[in-house]
Specification:
Helices cover 37% and strands 22% of the residues. It is α+β, with helices and mostly antiparallel strands. Residues 141-184 are annotated as: Disordered.
């Protein structure tokens, strides 16, 4: 996820636009209703018997998002189709009316051999991507048994295995410790965690915790590993103070 603003702004103006789009994004998610699972798909389970699960069509997902945006105002979204080799991908953009926007990394699937395969992949990716962005459960839980091709980001593609190379006899230089490089404020503002089964911006949760939200306070206290370090850095720089 990348947050961008119009060019030529001073840091305080940029921070204000970023905080504004965060606020509007959270407002939409608060009123957004789970779409109805208005369609069904059948598949054969690993044990040999048939199962089925319901899911929300792309039209139903977009309809609920549009209703939520109409209630709160200030946001819009669009899709961008991207291609790489034999893969087809979709990128989601969320625009604020004040001059900031959020760009999400694309997800990819095989494009298929026919125009119908290509169109089906695009439709699935759009539903998958926009549901992930807004934290929508657009499918019933089927224990992952129906998944044949899971969408993935470009940097998640599996590489073919190669034969191991012989060990060099010369002494190896120690690898650079990238963990010591400080994260930028923008990177920290974009850090997300799973909160109440939905992706949430960590800086927003910390703002809620500071404002007295008991659930958010408990969640922040129980963070571990990388998320705990990110929260510590956000607190150290007081980035949550820029969230209105």
């Amino acid at each position: 996820m990348i947050i961008k603003t119009v060019e030529g702004l001073e840091a305080p103006e940029k921070a204000k636009l970023v905080a504004d789009i965060f606020k509007k994004f959270i407002e939409v998610k608060k009123v957004l209703k789970t779409p109805k699972h208005n369609s069904k798909v059948e598949f054969s389970s690993r044990s040999g018997y048939k199962r089925s699960y319901g899911y929300s069509t792309l039209d139903e997902v977009l309809n609920q998002i549009d209703i939520a945006i109409k209630q709160t105002g200030g946001l819009s979204y669009t899709f961008e189709n991207v291609n790489s080799d034999s893969m087809v991908g979709v990128r989601v953009f969320i625009f604020g009316d004040s001059g900031a926007w959020i760009e999400f990394e694309p997800f990819y699937l095989p494009g298929g051999r026919t125009a119908q395969d290509y169109g089906s992949a695009l439709t699935y990716l759009r539903r998958y991507c926009i549901s992930s962005v807004f934290g929508i459960a657009s499918e019933e839980d089927d224990d992952a048994q129906s998944i044949s091709q899971k969408p993935f980001r470009a940097n998640e593609r599996q590489q073919p295995r190669q034969a191991p190379r012989p060990q060099a006899t010369a002494p190896q230089q120690p690898a650079e410790d990238k963990s010591k490089k400080p994260l930028s404020d923008d990177a920290l503002n974009m850090a997300t965690v799973t909160y109440q089964n939905r992706p949430e911006l960590l800086v927003i949760l910390m703002k809620q915790a500071v404002d007295g939200d008991k659930e958010a306070q408990k969640f922040i206290k129980e963070l571990e590993g990388k998320d705990k370090l990110l929260a510590h850095e956000i607190n150290k720089r007081k980035l949550y103070e820029k969230v209105s």
